[in-house]
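Render this sequence as a predicted structure.
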Amino acid sequence: MLRNYLKTKRTTMPKATETVLEINLKALEHNYRYLKSKLKTSTKFMAVVKAFGYGSDAVEVSKKLVKLNVDYLAVAYVKEGVALREGGIKTPILVLHPQAVNFETLIEYELEPSLYSPKILNAFLQVAQKQNIAAYPIHIKFNTNLNRLGFGENDVNYIAQQIEQNTSVKVASIFSHLAASEDAKEKEFTTNQITVFEKIAKEMDEKLGYTPLKHILNTSGIINYPEAQYDIVRSGIGLSGFGNDAAIDQELHPVATLKTIISQLHKIAPNESVGYNRDFKSDGEKVTATLPLGHADGIRRQYGNNKIAVSVNGKKAPIIGNVCMDMIMIDVTGIDCKEGDEVIVFGKNPTAEEFAHAGNTISYELLTGISQRVKRVYTNA
């Protein structure tokens, strides 16, 4: 009930009348087609829609991507995959970080696990055998020096032996993850990751006696290392409109725009303060506006005190004082505006990347941190 209340679909967007995160599905389509244009026609595409589809809505984003014929979807956890299945998504779904306690649910909803350690592999094999299933698709994750999750290079024989003895599963893909594909200074490191992965993949093919899909490229990898696209690539932040490179960002379209309104205007006299701890003190007569969103909505305290400006009727208005839990104050001195006017927190200007940079973080954290209490609205304009 709540989820339906927080979603609205429109083909064109009127001015905001409350705080909303506007999701532009046409921009999503543009980004998908742009990234696809960098690939061979035979290369498959896996859309990463974890964390509520990078802060938007995984079900709505996935439905759009399915219409665009995406080959695979990926989520972090089983419950995210369950939400997609219950939303009517039938496309194959890779679960990147499944927990053993959820394996029965994973199988029930026909999700595909990434298995990354002897313990997690054996746990899944036991569940699969117990359920008397055959050739269930699994994905084997290898660590090539990101040092987060994954089997080691020396585990190939062990993995092959375990799978050979168990007809309950079949390897659908072998994959790894790049650590610094966006950083030109780390090209040698990234190239070495790819080389190690190729060696592992060749050994796995030989040991298994068949050829699973291979994938290692993320969004930045698609742009910078197209020679390593193998059978399938993965993209999450790129679909949201960010390519970890200023030049590529110009080619992509931001999908999410955070909008709100002016709740109240105040005339501030010289030496008056604004907000908690009186961190802003006026150096003259000012006009301030209070906005109905705050750190409980995902705009953290680090964005206060003149770190970044929002857009009011096309004019920049800096955030002043400390960000409150449910409210933000901005300086609108000299801006022609009134209570109820729309305010663009981030979107095209500033972008989520620019906004995040002002708070010493990245667009991933900002986008995925927008609270679920913020209404999501959708446009194809």
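Summary. The longest helix spans residues 187-208. The mean pLDDT is 95.
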